[in-house]
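hiii so um. not sure if this is the right channel but i have a protein structure encoded as tokens and i wanna go backwards to a sequence. like what aa goes where. can anyone help
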């Protein structure tokens, strides 16, 4: 190949890289603009938030928006309790999903038993059913058990989900059989193998599942809206929704409440980002 051909090939590669970088910058801007708007507007008074064209830098910083967001327009400080409710529900559901999905996925990936494929198909079939179609029967069950307006009602229906099982199965299909056989030779029973061998080596996949589950529960509004009635048991999305429906809404305080609600998500993601990225390998598992 001549020097001119090499130069032309390198130029084409450089152009592709530039175009790809520009596309990434555009996507990044699309993602970040709403976040920047939310943060800057949280320091503005209402009329400034609604001013067009929008001023990205507040003329003056209204820190009292955050005070009003926490104490609420009724001055009853329900937001702190709602944050605690969301934390309890999201953390509990995340932990149970990671553990139960890993256990079920391990069984479907590494054990042979009658009806294994049928079980997998049934589990995956539940992923095709919209939550809205089972919401009312699920609510009736929760009501019959006396779990309405309680943590049990918010948590129990979501202890494990089909996506988590499928995700962990795909990851554990690639788990080395030799490692499991070595643990059995050393005298470990199956439960000990799962706890001492499988879980420590599945941290990336479980972390990825945990982040996705935490975010899903943190943002959940439909089920808490159906199950909870008292202000003390409501979660963050319901509090923010209530803020928007009041007669006099301070848009700056509303966005301040949204900023506060976003902090745990950022903390969880950035503290576990390394494992989350490693956990993307679950989608490269072999098919079986």
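sure thing!! here u go:
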């Amino acid at each position: 190949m001549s020097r001119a051909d090499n130069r032309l090939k390198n130029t084409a590669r450089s152009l592709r890289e530039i175009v790809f970088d520009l596309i990434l910058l555009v996507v990044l801007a699309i993602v970040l603009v709403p976040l920047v708007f939310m943060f800057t507007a949280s320091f503005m008074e209402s009329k400034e938030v609604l001013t067009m064209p929008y001023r990205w830098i507040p003329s003056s910083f209204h820190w009292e928006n955050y005070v009003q967001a926490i104490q609420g327009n009724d001055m009853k400080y329900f937001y702190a309790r709602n944050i605690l409710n969301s934390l309890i529900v999201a953390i509990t559901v995340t932990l149970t999903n990671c553990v139960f999905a890993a256990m079920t996925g391990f069984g479907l990936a590494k054990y042979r038993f009658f009806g294994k494929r049928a079980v997998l198909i049934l589990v995956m079939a539940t992923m095709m059913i919209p939550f809205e179609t089972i919401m009312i029967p699920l609510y009736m069950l929760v009501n019959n058990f006396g779990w309405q307006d309680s943590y049990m009602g918010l948590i129990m229906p979501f202890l494990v989900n089909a996506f988590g099982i499928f995700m962990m199965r795909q990851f554990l299909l690639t788990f080395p059989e030799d490692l499991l056989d070595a643990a059995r030779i050393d005298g470990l029973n199956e439960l000990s193998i799962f706890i001492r061998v499988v879980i420590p080596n599945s941290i990336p996949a479980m972390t990825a599942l945990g982040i996705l589950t935490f975010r899903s529960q943190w943002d959940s509004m439909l089920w808490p809206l159906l199950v909870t009635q008292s202000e003390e048991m409501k979660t963050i999305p319901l509090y923010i929704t209530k803020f928007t429906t009041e007669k006099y809404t301070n848009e700056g305080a509303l966005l301040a409440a949204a900023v506060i609600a976003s902090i745990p998500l950022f903390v969880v993601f950035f503290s576990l980002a390394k494992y989350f990225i490693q956990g993307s390998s679950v989608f490269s598992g072999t098919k079986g």
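oh and Residues 282-288 have pLDDT under 50 and may be disordered.
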